[in-house]
Write a structure and sequence with these properties.
single chain; 2 domains; binds fe (ii) ion
Length: 207
């Protein structure tokens, strides 16, 4: 179901919470229906950052054999990036890079990339999407896999170095029990900031 992003001129501080369109087949929808949907979707999408944070919390308590649980790993990764002076968007990418672990055990990086795609730069998006292969440099050989799988991206040196650096500095070392990790509440404002930007989407009107 599409979420329509447009600045609604009819939006008020206290709009009706239960306004609904009146079609039973979207092929018969009217402009009035879409004015209703646009207004209501605007309310829903404004809270996407809150829902992302709620989903990230599902990683708490899930260790999967790792030294720290998946939420702690995510927070440590973001903490390391923040303390290294990375900008807001980069830190949010670090925080959310493994959010797909809950639903996509075999391609978790694609979930994070899909969530972030409308809101982040192409460089950060590429980094998030490919971090699984680059992180593999540190352990694939222990599983009988090719740790050098990342070499396929050598012809894109800037993206290669950016993603290799992300894994080396922030993703790989973010497994320390007892680390001085910043709490999720610290990052909540910047998550909401990133997800409050106008998205790049087929549902976004140009201009
Ligand atoms: Fe990952
Ligand atoms: Fe990770």
């Amino acid at each position: 179901m599409p979420i329509v992003h447009q600045e609604s001129p009819t939006h008020s501080a206290h709009p009706a919470q239960d306004a609904r369109a009146h079609f039973d087949n979207i092929a018969n929808s009217t402009q009035a229906d879409w004015e209703t949907i646009t207004r209501e979707s605007h309310l829903y999408e404004r809270a996407v950052g809150t829902r992302v944070l709620a989903h990230l919390k599902l990683l708490a308590g899930e260790y999967g054999g790792f030294p720290v649980d998946r939420l702690e790993h995510s927070l440590q990764c973001a903490t390391l990036a923040h303390r290294d002076g990375r900008d807001v968007e980069y830190v949010v990418c670090a925080l959310l890079h493994d959010i797909g672990d809950t639903l996509a055990s075999f391609n978790h990086f694609d979930i994070a990339a899909a969530i972030l795609q409308p809101f982040v730069s192409s460089e950060n998006l590429w980094m998030v999407r490919q971090h699984g292969i680059f992180q593999g440099y540190y352990f694939f050989h222990q599983l009988g896999l090719d740790r050098n799988l990342r070499e396929r991206f050598r012809d894109q040196p800037a993206l290669f170095e950016r993603t290799a650096e992300f894994c080396f500095k922030y993703d790989a070392p973010a497994f320390k029990p007892g680390f001085d990790t910043l709490p999720l509440a610290f990052f909540a404002p910047i998550v909401n900031e990133v997800f409050s930007q106008k998205p790049r989407s087929i549902y976004t009107a140009p201009g």
